[in-house]
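Much of our argument rests on the idea that a fold can be written as discrete symbols. This step matters because it turns folding into a mapping between discrete strings. The record that follows shows the chain in one-letter code together with its fold in token form.
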Amino acid sequence: MRNNSLGRLRSLKEAGAVLRATITSLCYRRSDKQFSGVQISVFDQDDTLIDDDGCFVAFRELGLKRKPEKLMGQGIFVAIGDLQLHGPRGKRFTFSRIEAVKRRMADLQAQIGAVIEAVVVAIVANGVLADIGNHIVGKVSTAELSSLPQSPRQLVAVGDRIEVKLLGVCGENITLSRRQVFEHSAR
């Protein structure tokens, strides 16, 4: 890990930052070929690459239910852990996806009831998925899209900016409503 990367990560850790990362490779233990974690490229809040050499998330810190093979190229959020010495490569920080999710969800709990802007990122069978900022995706069910019984594709398209109300946060699930925004503004 380069010194300038170490310094940037140290200051972001002190600020309690949650960073975006992309999984670049899967890691397996040599002794028994068991999945041990993933190598990541880490980006700051402005999507500027901080480090793509030696950043590792251990399996126990991933908290993912998917098979390792399906992780390649996936974007995840990570919190910066402790600085550790790591063999001949020198120092490196530990990273945790589990801690990042806890921090993000705690921040959102304080905003329940707020109306926020979101961008539709996918249309699914029973609603839409919308990015509410910083790559946090919540779900607007079909019933919460409109008071009219229409399919999601008739109401929105991928890339549309919509106003939604944050209804709840449970684990990693974020519930949003577009209908309640309309009902409130009609009063």
Q: What stands out?
A: The longest helix spans residues 97-109. The chain is about 25% helix and 45% strand.
